[in-house]
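Troubleshooting: if your tokenizer reports a length mismatch, compare your output against this known-good record of 152 residues.
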Amino acid sequence: MLSESRDNRVDLSVFSPTLVKGMLEYIYTDKTDLTDADPGEWLRIADMYELAGLKSDAACVISESLSVQNAAEAFQLSSLYNLEVLKTTVIEFIKQYEQNIHIYSFHRHEHDKFPHFPRNGIGRAVAAHPTFTDFVRTNPAAAVELFAAILN
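Known-good structure output:
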């Protein structure tokens, strides 16, 4: 049992005042300025208080601002908050860069960057799939991590 239901009170002190104000604004008006705080924080508060519309709006903000720098984080958020549409969007974003990613150029230090891949090389892990897109489809979390490391 959550302490909130046991104690009959809600503790919002873990969130910034701006975020709490925005959440209350959303509850009463179905609108809020999602640029006031980090989209990941919007997802956290929306998930905690089961505000599906706010959660969806925050996921849209993340989708619209996808970049090479934030794709890995966006994928992690999609997994953490069970946002399949966002996850698919991130994977599609990665596929756009497929032609620019030269997977097979990894040689000596690949295991240090990607310890979850076998020691025989990340190139071989990817090579087991006919295309990089197939690798992304079957190993999305690893592909996002790889994508972020390659392009950063």
